[in-house]
Amino acid sequence: MKLLEQIISIVSDLTEISPDEIRSRSRRSDVKEARYLVIYLLKHQGVKTYKIAKMMDIPERSIYYAITAYYIHSDEDGSMLKEWSRDAKSELQKLRKREAESLQ
Question: What value does the mean pLDDT of the chain take?
Answer without folding.
Answer: 94
